[in-house]
Amino acid sequence: MAKWTPKYEAPEPLEGPVVATITGGTIIWFVLFLAQVPFYGWYADRDLTWWIWTCLAGAGLGLIGIWYVRRRDAAIKRDAARAERPGPAAS
Question: Is 30:59 a contact under the CB 8 Å cutoff?
Protein backbone atom coordinates (compact mmCIF):
# COMPACT_ATOMS: atom_id res chain seq x y z
CA MET A 1 0.00 0.00 0.00
CA ALA A 2 2.97 2.30 0.47
CA LYS A 3 3.25 2.42 -3.30
CA TRP A 4 -0.02 4.39 -3.50
CA THR A 5 0.59 6.64 -0.51
CA PRO A 6 1.34 10.18 -1.71
CA LYS A 7 4.78 11.47 -0.83
CA TYR A 8 3.78 15.12 -0.94
CA GLU A 9 0.71 17.09 0.00
CA ALA A 10 -1.36 18.21 -2.98
CA PRO A 11 -1.16 21.95 -3.73
CA GLU A 12 -4.21 24.17 -3.52
CA PRO A 13 -6.11 24.53 -6.81
CA LEU A 14 -5.33 27.65 -8.81
CA GLU A 15 -8.05 30.27 -8.98
CA GLY A 16 -8.25 32.80 -11.74
CA PRO A 17 -10.45 34.31 -14.41
CA VAL A 18 -11.86 30.97 -15.61
CA VAL A 19 -14.69 32.43 -17.71
CA ALA A 20 -12.32 34.86 -19.44
CA THR A 21 -9.81 32.09 -20.14
CA ILE A 22 -12.39 29.79 -21.69
CA THR A 23 -13.94 32.66 -23.65
CA GLY A 24 -10.52 33.56 -25.05
CA GLY A 25 -9.88 29.98 -26.09
CA THR A 26 -13.31 29.72 -27.71
CA ILE A 27 -12.68 32.91 -29.69
CA ILE A 28 -9.32 31.56 -30.88
CA TRP A 29 -10.91 28.30 -32.08
CA PHE A 30 -13.66 30.20 -33.90
CA VAL A 31 -11.17 32.60 -35.55
CA LEU A 32 -9.11 29.63 -36.71
CA PHE A 33 -12.26 28.09 -38.18
CA LEU A 34 -13.12 31.30 -40.03
CA ALA A 35 -9.54 31.65 -41.30
CA GLN A 36 -9.62 28.14 -42.81
CA VAL A 37 -13.08 28.19 -44.41
CA PRO A 38 -11.96 30.17 -47.51
CA PHE A 39 -9.39 27.44 -48.20
CA TYR A 40 -11.88 24.57 -47.93
CA GLY A 41 -11.09 23.40 -51.47
CA TRP A 42 -7.37 23.19 -50.72
CA TYR A 43 -8.07 21.16 -47.58
CA ALA A 44 -10.55 18.93 -49.43
CA ASP A 45 -8.04 18.20 -52.23
CA ARG A 46 -5.54 16.95 -49.65
CA ASP A 47 -8.11 15.12 -47.49
CA LEU A 48 -7.43 17.48 -44.57
CA THR A 49 -10.91 18.90 -43.96
CA TRP A 50 -10.80 17.46 -40.45
CA TRP A 51 -8.65 20.48 -39.51
CA ILE A 52 -11.56 22.79 -40.27
CA TRP A 53 -14.10 20.70 -38.40
CA THR A 54 -11.76 20.34 -35.44
CA CYS A 55 -11.69 24.12 -35.09
CA LEU A 56 -15.48 24.28 -35.25
CA ALA A 57 -15.75 21.50 -32.66
CA GLY A 58 -13.34 23.39 -30.40
CA ALA A 59 -15.48 26.52 -30.67
CA GLY A 60 -18.64 24.54 -29.95
CA LEU A 61 -17.13 22.80 -26.93
CA GLY A 62 -15.86 26.18 -25.76
CA LEU A 63 -19.43 27.50 -25.77
CA ILE A 64 -20.46 24.55 -23.63
CA GLY A 65 -17.50 25.29 -21.35
CA ILE A 66 -18.51 28.94 -20.98
CA TRP A 67 -22.05 27.90 -20.07
CA TYR A 68 -20.74 25.36 -17.55
CA VAL A 69 -18.26 27.61 -15.72
CA ARG A 70 -20.73 30.50 -15.52
CA ARG A 71 -23.29 28.19 -13.88
CA ARG A 72 -20.57 26.75 -11.61
CA ASP A 73 -19.43 30.23 -10.51
CA ALA A 74 -23.04 31.25 -9.84
CA ALA A 75 -23.60 28.11 -7.75
CA ILE A 76 -20.44 28.73 -5.73
CA LYS A 77 -21.47 32.33 -5.04
CA ARG A 78 -25.01 31.26 -4.15
CA ASP A 79 -23.68 28.64 -1.73
CA ALA A 80 -21.28 31.15 -0.13
CA ALA A 81 -24.12 33.65 0.33
CA ARG A 82 -26.31 30.94 1.87
CA ALA A 83 -23.52 29.99 4.30
CA GLU A 84 -23.11 33.62 5.44
CA ARG A 85 -26.80 34.08 6.28
CA PRO A 86 -27.67 33.52 9.91
CA GLY A 87 -30.51 31.21 10.65
CA PRO A 88 -31.37 27.54 10.71
CA ALA A 89 -29.05 25.28 8.81
CA ALA A 90 -30.43 24.22 5.43
CA SER A 91 -30.37 20.53 4.75
Answer: yes
Q: What is the pLDDT of residues 1-57, one digit of tens each?
A: 567 888 888 888 888 899 999 999 999 999 999 999 999 999 999 999 999 999 999
Q: Which whole-number Å values give the CA distances from 21 to 26, 34, 55, 66, in the listed order? A: 9, 20, 17, 9
Claim: this prediction has a pTM higher than 0.90: no
Domain boundaries, the chain: 17-83
- Among 54, 66, 50, which residue's Cα sits nearest to residue 29? 54
- H-only helix segments in the chain: 18-36, 40-45, 50-84
